[in-house]
Design brief:
139 residues; alpha/beta; Oxidized Rhodanese, domain 1; two-stranded antiparallel ribbon; 25% helix; 15% strand; STR4-like
C-alpha cells in the first residue's frame, strides 16, 4: 500500500486550496450524500469542487472507474489533489489509490465533511468541514 502525502484538517485543506491555485478538491461521497447532506462551496476561491463517487450509490459497490475518472479531471500527476468524504475514511483510500496510480501529492481531508459521531451518535457536531465553518451549500 502506497503512502499518500498526508492528512489535512479541513481548515488546513482550505488554506492549501487558497494558496495552491492548481490544487483540486474531489468529494468522493455518494450522489445521495451530495444531494441531501450538502457539498463544499469553493466559490469564495473562484473555484468548484469536483465529485467522483468512491463507492456507488445505492449498493455501496466500489467504483471500478474511480482512478480513470479522477485522472480525466486531473491529468497532471504533480497537481495537489485533496480528497473529502463524510469522515475521512473513504477519502484516505482514494488518496492511496491515486498515489498508487502515480500521483505525487494526494491528501486526505481528515474529519471529512460531517466529522465523527458525537455522544448521541450523530454527525455534524464534532469536527469536519461544516463544523469548521467552511463554506458549503445544500446539494
Amino acid at each position: 500500500m502506497a503512502d499518500y502525502a498526508g492528512d489535512l484538517d479541513p481548515k488546513a485543506a482550505w488554506k492549501m486550496l487558497e494558496s495552491e491555485p492548481a490544487a483540486v478538491l474531489i468529494d468522493v461521497r455518494t450522489l445521495a450524500e451530495w444531494q441531501y447532506v450538502g457539498v463544499p462551496d469553493l466559490s469564495p476561491l473562484d473555484r468548484k469542487a469536483e465529485f467522483v463517487e468512491w463507492q456507488r450509490f445505492p449498493d455501496g459497490s466500489p467504483n471500478a472507474e474511480f482512478v480513470e475518472q479522477v485522472t480525466r479531471i486531473v491529468p497532471d500527476p504533480e497537481v495537489p489533489v485533496l480528497f473529502l468524504c463524510r469522515s475521512g475514511v473513504r477519502s484516505m483510500h482514494a488518496a492511496i489509490a491515486l498515489t498508487e496510480a502515480g500521483y505525487a501529492h494526494c491528501y486526505n481531508v481528515a474529519e471529512g465533511f460531517e466529522g465523527d459521531k458525537d455522544m448521541a451518535q450523530h454527525r455534524g457536531t464534532v469536527g469536519g468541514w461544516k463544523v469548521a465553518g467552511l463554506p458549503w451549500q445544500q446539494g
